[in-house]
Automatic annotation (TrEMBL):
InterPro entries: At4g14100-like. It comes from the Eukaryota. Keywords: Signal. This is Transferring glycosyl group transferase. It comes from Glycine max (Soybean). Residues 1-23 form the signal peptide.
Amino acid sequence: MASAREQMYLMAILLIFSPSKLTLSNAGAVTGQPIPPEWPHQFHAFMFMNESGILQKLDLWYDWPNGRNFNIIRNQLDHVVSYDLEWTNGTSFVYTLDPSDPTCKVVDFGVGILRPNWLDGATYLGQQHVDNFLCNVWAKVDFIVYYEEVLTRRPVRRDFSSGYTGHVMTFEVGAVLEDANWQAPVYCFDGNEKEKNIPILGSAVRGGSLGSLMREIPTGETM
Ligand SMILES: *[C@@H]1O[C@H](CO)[C@@H](O)[C@H](O)[C@H]1NC(C)=O
Ligand SMILES: *[C@@H]1O[C@H](CO)[C@@H](O)[C@H](O)[C@H]1NC(C)=O
């Protein structure tokens, strides 16, 4: 009978050469590198964002089981709140609720929201001190650098190659936004919404917001 050590060795070989998609994340364990995190299926994160000096606060509600993701964004000292509501069928509703100037833009991204395992296959870059936390650092396709606290495995920060940085201020695992809040306003459905422009979210519509940017990450390899 094989010894425990031999069995572990065999297991490692099987994991390394297994064609399964699990290989990517488990290979890390075999080589002793930390495994990229899988996102909790539902969470609320409050974040500070910095887009080349333009500061924003962002409420991020990730809700994988219900196939939806919400970015609620406010620029520094701006009273207008922008809503970027993403559905996993690829449709995003980008709108304001400001009574003086209600706007809505419907965007079809053609891809769903980020999968919880979207960091699978990310390149481990070692440990760094960022935002006063000692973090494990991963890069995903030269597009995003992801920082997770070594001690608690909480997300700390993410930097996009565009210069957009996101600092996680709170992270509540399991928090879910009530259904009523996921209803886009009626003027998103009147057929005139497409030409309207929303200055605060201009960059988000072009792919500047956290969620929209993330939608552009090639996720095919993790599906
Ligand atoms: C925002 O980012 C810019 C670089 O793009 C940096 O110079 C600036 O210090 C940052 N601001 C804050 C408040 O972190
Ligand atoms: C995607 O889902 C949302 C929410 O259910 C819906 O409002 C929207 O019309 C759907 N988009 C498409 C293209 O079916």
